[in-house]
Specification:
It is found in: Nucleus. This protein has helices at 16-26, 46-64, 72-77, 89-93, 141-151, 186-195, 207-219, 225-243, 247-263, 271-290, 299-312, 315-320, 326-346, 352-360, 386-405, 411-427, 441-463, 473-489, 496-504, 509-526, 532-547, 557-565. With 575 residues, it is an all-alpha fold. α11 (299-312) crosses α13 (326-346) and α17 (441-463) packs antiparallel against α18 (473-489).
Length: 575
Amino acid sequence: RGLGVGGTTNLGCVDLFELGELCIHRRLFICHHIHLSSSSGIGRFMPVLIMAAQALTSSGTAHLGLAGRGCWTCKDRRVRCDRKLPTCHNCARTQQQCQGYGVRLSWPKGNNPKRAVVCVPVATRHNTRSHRNLHFVHISCLDMALYGYLSDLPQSVEISRTRVQPKDLVRPVSTVWQASPHGAEESELFRYFNDIASASLGIFGPGLASIPDWLMATALSHNSPPYQAAQYGLLAVSSLHRYGLQRQAAQYKIAAIRALSESTTKTDLTFSEASLLVATCMLLCSFEIHIISETTGSWLIYLCGAGKIVKTMNLESYSERGEPVTADLLAWVHYHGILAEFSIFHWRHGVIESLYGKEFGLDKPLVLPCDKLRRVRQLHFSTAHPSHAILCLLAEACYSLYEYQELVLTSDEYYSKLSDLRRRTETMHVSSLPKDGSSTDESLDLTETTSLLQLAILIFMHRITEGPLQRDPDGLAAWQDRAFTIIRCIDTCRHLFPLFIVGIEAQTDERKADFLNLIKRTEERTNVRNLGTFQETIVGIWNQEDLSADESWGISYTHKISGVISSSKFLPSLA
């Protein structure tokens, strides 16, 4: 019953049981009830006494059948707990479920100002997509900068023709110059053009078969300047197609330009000579388009020259008289002219006439081959062939967009015109074979390309419409399915405009792979042109789609096309 500490220091007798009761019931510090001697050595034994008192407190509490603290139920009810073990008697008497005396986690209530973290409701979160649905996007710094630029543009359909895209959003270009071939004979180049290189001229329609034969037969029949211009133009395209950009191809091109310049001084040009000059301009245009990713966009200069000769010599009247090849020749010029207007409309580097006049030192303003304020009905070439008829519909769709955005057409007129164009495009049959009933690879390829262009026009009209036509999503899905079925089935496609419109619609990895495989096959099997720049353009649009996938708003269709086309330093051709 007593505790002696040390030999010299003596504590009075302390009732240990009483000491425990004092600690439990009165909550007094143990030192208040310990009679300390006057000896100064007792201070160093205080920790020992305190630990002993704590042990006694625990044993004394258990001995009395009391918990060290009140139960959680009484604490929540703000009442005094009797601390009985194993459960509180107050809870039993009031029929409450006793939550016990153990440790529990305590969470602040929602209205507690001391609450540190408040969870954001799921409905208000910006992005609720699962991490499983996220995917990596293969993009460049230029794609990110272009996305930021396009996101800041107004999302209305109107586009200011004076808006200029910043120069830092232009993709760099490279120059590819090949070594000269070792003495290729001109006769061999003519044969190569007739057999292979003629497919690279960008001719849409039956003229792909008739124009090369007519060119070879007519150009080699005489030796005057108009005929020499056509001869050198053929040699330039053939040399470029076979050997790439090298000295020989450049020399033939320069010779063709000189002969063309000499021929334009004549005032008594015949119909055949004028037709050859138009063909020479288109050959030079095709030459520049073939290497557009490495040179300037001077193809537009030669295209404008061809359009000027057609107008000056009134070649459209010869087409009405039934002159052979003239309809196909005019369709060649107008096809490139319509798509040139499309590129010019979306290329945001300033007014095209002044830009080209400054770059090439033109004395007069550049006159485009197809004035978009001119009605398409004035394009005087036969529409009996489906490819020519679909070409007229393409022109009407593009010009309707231009007139609407330049406030020439009201909204009602615009939607009414597009509805009529959609009806005419859907009801047009393009599965026609040659009149003799024969079916060749060329005719089948033309039929598939014309069908793809028909679907591209329908998709294009749907996308550029912000009104009634966009209420038919099932129609758009059906056109997309048919278009990608054609892309999977055909071996090659030499015409880029339908590929451009349909390629933008590739939303899945499978369709993107089908599209890229077609581009690869076309480049390997036809050598039509360098399609690297064209592929970069399509991939750039896919990147913009991926960057805006999580946004509640999307970039305008026309803004998106304009931004990516304007990322090319030189005016691209989609012919």
